[in-house]
Specification:
By secondary structure, this protein is mainly alpha-helical. The protein has 14 helices and no strands. The protein has a single domain, classed as MFS general substrate transporter like domains (Growth Hormone, Chain: A), CATH 1.20.1250.
């Protein structure tokens, strides 16, 4: 009786799967609380990327530093993506996420106080470390609850991430010349989210028969094709994140408010479209939803750098890009989870996100190398080619229709 009076997250007898399986309400509670860090990631991402053309000069950096900082951020995520996925399969997902959100909270706050190029790069790299750990752990947590709800569950991550992306430019726009407050707010909200997560999410993820987890066991046809596709998307996305706001503000010379509204469409697209696409993935198959999301990214990538000063066109195409971006990574992870044994869900998620972020390391530098040709050719070369190849690869994946989720037994593998 005493046990039942304690918050769900502090009950030693409960698991995430057992709580989520009680009712739709409990399932939604677990999914929504687990996805909160995704909002923080999106919020921080657009705080920095939209504010970067002002933040970098403030620390006496050149335009080329935009790509360097984006690469450092991606490096932090890449280095720790495998760690987050590995710990999901072998350790407590709850404490993995708590540790990573704490790291994120500290360094998103310190981003606002960076006073040199070195401290800015270090802050963004360590923000990336926190994201690198919680991103695969949360996506694996959401996707591995039930096979039948995998698309919808991971779409919660995308919805929250899109919401954060949408809010970020509006919040930092009034503070571009004194940007500390938005980053302090990001850190404070992260700490509140950490406390809620601690009280609601059980320590144990699932109780299943213990099995050996082999990395070689995940490298089948689907995972190999998805690995290359998501690597290419990493190039696409970080070319976009590193230079799109600079393109709007400096090349097209749009007013900061108008540019913020256009940039926010990337987040709004994911926020609005992620759940419908996740639901579609569960109904018609994750394979087809992955290809559709990738097609939206391709259309947006080519279109954004092809319509010039056509502001309505920029709104629509940035929205399309965001709609695809918002769910693509999560659905690729879900299809990867479909394609391997249940006990490898975290490992395959970490692997795919690792390759995504390795690709991201090249996005900023490739755009920077092409920049002497002009923003439009650089955008078409960096985003257009990589997104086209990524889309083509999604067409040769195989759909998975049979559940690979083990029923719970007594033996705990997450303690």
């Amino acid at each position: 009786m005493e046990e039942n009076r304690r918050p769900i997250g502090l009950r030693s007898t409960e698991t995430i799967r057992s709580i989520a399986g009680r009712s739709r309400g409990y399932f939604l509670l677990i999914v929504l609380v687990a996805a909160i860090p995704a909002f923080l990631e999106g919020f921080d991402t657009n705080l920095y990327t939209f504010g970067a053309p002002y933040i970098v000069p403030h620390v006496h950096g050149s335009a080329a530093i935009l790509g360097v900082v984006a690469t450092g951020y991606a490096l932090g995520i890449a280095l720790f993506s495998m760690v987050g996925g590995f710990l999901f399969d072998r350790f407590s997902v709850k404490y993995t996420i708590i540790l990573s959100v704490a790291i994120f909270a500290l360094f998103t706050c310190l981003t606002g106080f960076a006073n040199s190029v070195v401290t800015l790069i270090a802050s963004r790299l360590l923000v990336g470390v926190g994201i690198g750990m919680f991103q695969p752990a949360i996506i694996a947590l959401l996707g591995d609850i039930f096979f039948e709800t995998r698309g919808r569950a991971v779409s919660a991550f995308a919805v929250f991430f899109g919401g954060g992306l949408f809010v970020g430019p509006y919040l930092i726009s009034p503070f571009l010349h004194d940007y500390k407050f938005p980053f302090v707010l990001s850190g404070v909200v992260s700490l509140i989210a950490l406390i809620v997560f601690y009280l609601v999410i059980p320590r144990t993820y699932k109780k299943v028969e213990s099995r050996h987890v082999s990395f070689r066991g995940i490298l089948n046809r689907n995972v190999t094709v998805l690995s290359i596709s998501i690597f290419l998307f990493g190039i696409t996305l970080f070319g976009f994140l590193g230079y799109y706001s600079d393109y709007l503000l400096k090349s097209l010379t749009l007013a900061s408010g108008e540019a913020a509204a256009i940039a926010s469409m990337g987040g709004l697209g994911g926020f609005i479209c992620a759940f419908p696409l996740g639901l579609l993935a569960d109904r018609v198959g994750r394979k087809y939803a992955v290809s559709f999301a990738s097609l939206l990214i391709l259309i947006g990538s080519v279109g954004m750098f092809s319509v010039g000063h056509n502001v309505p066109g920029l709104f629509v195409l940035t929205f399309a890009f965001g709609a695809g971006w918002g769910i693509y990574v999560d659905l690729v992870a879900a299809l990867g989870q479909d394609s391997v044994a249940d006990e490898s869900a975290g490992t395959v998620t970490g692997w795919l996100l690792f390759l995504f972020n390795v690709g991201a390391l090249f996005g900023g530098p490739i755009f920077a190398l092409a920049l002497p040709l002009g923003f439009v050719p650089a955008g078409l070369l960096t985003l257009g080619i990589s997104s086209a190849l990524s889309f083509i690869l999604t067409l040769v994946t195989q759909g998975i229709k049979e559940s690979n989720v083990q029923a719970e037994v007594v033996t705990q593998i997450h303690v």
